[in-house]
From TrEMBL:
Its EC number is 2.7.7.8. It comes from the Eukaryota. Residues 666-737 form the S1 motif domain. Keywords: Cytoplasm, Nucleotidyltransferase, RNA-binding, Transferase. The lineage of its organism: Eukaryota, Metazoa, Chordata, Craniata, Vertebrata. Belongs to the polyribonucleotide nucleotidyltransferase family. One of its GO terms (biological process) is mitochondrial RNA 3'-end processing. GO terms for molecular function: 3'-5'-RNA exonuclease activity; polyribonucleotide nucleotidyltransferase activity; RNA binding. It comes from Gadus morhua. CDD domains: KH-I_PNPT1 (cd09033), RNase_PH_PNPase_1 (cd11363), RNase_PH_PNPase_2 (cd11364). Residues 750-770 are annotated as: Disordered. This is polyribonucleotide nucleotidyltransferase.
Amino acid sequence: MRYLLRLGPSFTNLNVRWCHQSVYNSNGTIRKVAVDLGHKKLEISTGRFARFADGAAVVQLGDTSVMVTAVSKTKPSPSQFMPLVVDYRQKAAAAGRIPTNHLRRELGTTDNEILTSRLIDRAIRPLFPAGYFYDTQVLCNLLAVDGVNDPDVLAINGASAALAMSDIPWNGPIGAVRVGLVEGEFLINPTRKEMGSSSLNLILAGAPSSQVVMIEASAENVLQQDFCHAVKVGVKHTQQIIHAIQQLCREKKVTKRTPVKMFSAPGDMVEHARQLSADRIYSVFKDSSHDKISRDDAINKVRLETEEALKVKYPQAELFEVMECFNTVSKDIFRNLVLHEYKRCDGRDLTALRNISCEVDVLKPLHGSALFQRGQTQVLCGVTFDSLESTVKADLITTALSGIKDKNFMLHYEFPPYATNEIGKMGGINRRELGHGALAEKSLRPVIPKDFPFTIRVTAEVLESNGSSSMASACGGSLALMDAGVPISSAVAGVAIGLISKPSPEKPNEIQDYRLLTDILGIEDYLGDMDFKMAGTIKGITALQADVKIPGLPLKLVMEAIQQATVAKKEILAIMNKSIGKPRNTRKENGPVIENVRVPVSRRSRFVGPGGYNLRRLQAQTGVTISQVDEETFSVFAPTPGAMNEAQDFITDVCKDDQEQQLEFGAVYTASIIEIRDIGVMVKLYPNMSAVLLHNSQLDHKRIKHPSALGLEVGQQIQVKYFGRDPTDGRMRLSRKVLQSPAASLVKKLSEKQSISMATGEGQAPGTPS
């Protein structure tokens, strides 16, 4: 395939230029730099807004602007990890809209906001120095959104610029771009319209020296070589953003603060802990007969004894230092076992998969179900079909900002506490569950048929977890979809690749030696340097997510990880195909049914009922969903065939009106009045027919305000003429007025008027005796 890269009109090669300027005003210096990326300029500025923050930057692409601020406390936090909080919030005003809730304010956080916040967090967190435990907050404020350029990539670059130009200790900057692939042409930061026809949505954050910090991608079965080339193109362009931010830092003469304390274990305490526990820890990690629970119990036993001994020898030591000493020793032993002995704690080779078992049709009443087991990671997936009315409908602000519209496929990931032998709260959804579910959903979405007549919901419940539950959810979801008879284009499998690396003594940000691990355990993720998750079909890649814990990965290592994941993916697909090789030809007997019901215009008012009463009653009693297709056609969705039968009987009964077939246009019938209303009378032509309104205007030639003016009563029989059905609303047309002679009515009216005049003496000729 020939690869093309769209560039601006003034470019003849891939070299991307940048320029900068400084503007002085009464409030200080406004510094701005422009980076040419493809056919647009990315502008980064600082010094104008939010000057009280430790760092603030505004990033603009087209007419989309994002302001990012960074603030970090100067006093350490009592936590035992880096307390970083990233909040990305969508502002309605930025898109020229007003929130539609009752307060007309932004309330809560949307899924898109949470996922974007996680994206920014994963890009910047690896570059904070080890032991920097100071509360740090990064806030992303959308200033303006043009509906053409997405603000998520701008927010990553804004966070990088704000942190780099602050005095917060941070080993940045980084640069981020989005890469699209349209008809063999790679686009850098494509517009929303271009992304609509792109087979690749790759967001990549790069560090200096062409290293990769974070990857988030969804793809429509993109080939491995195309994906690798997209990564290389993206990294090349991130370097230009990095150079521009570095230039701003040099102009501002940024000096990083010296923290009061960096949390790390004292060297002498670490050595003493090593003497006390190294052999015992090594023997636990070397024993492949352990499972997750027994290994954790054995390590915790050694931990408690070692920490007690350390407290006795170092009574003045803080609790964190005591705990960190043991953590440092156990981490070193675990990593050295992989680096030097090429052994993993469960006895596998570095590229070997865990034992995999698959089962479909686990729960027969469900539309589709599957159980996927990989080692001690177990996921139960179920498929549910519903009507297209049940699609996920994005709020107006999300649609205006990101163009996300209704979607008829969703995957919901659940991680209950018992999956890791813990106790915790149930209910609600946390950011981790949302992120893992979004990744599994991206993995499966490309194989879902576009014209599928139902809304599909896949639930992935993690029953056991020992690493890579999100990729197990993608595998289980693929099996459940095939079991449900969804004609997916190909089976999907996913796997996680881990990394154990050794930094260079001369250059700590460079890797001297490393080992890649296929299908990582939970402990390999926790003590390792990378969680590289990739999913796809036998043909190509559908999703990829790389979480890195070190300052960056060289491109060579990323390419190796993709290749190793591709090999593992094919092995997993071969095992899955033994359980079910292709989608079932038909859906299950208890599956949902969709039928179109034709309701003539003449019956539509009776079918719908007054104010939609009949439709609501039908849906409440049978559980079906009804939507109008055109003037005479209604689509009926039923969750089961039994519900469809009930709905059909209901519809037949509601629309049944046999006597009407005997009515002749223009014929005169005797109707019985059954109800008197202000606007007319309700009459029946036959006892088993529905009542019809005979309006006041059709009762008599003269205007009346109420039927009582004519002496009409309930039970009275009157003569009416039938004029068929109204072609617009289907109502029966009857008239009593046409049966009464207008001349007779006029004579009667004049006679009445003359009688009244004579009784009052009016109208008498002059001179006539009374």
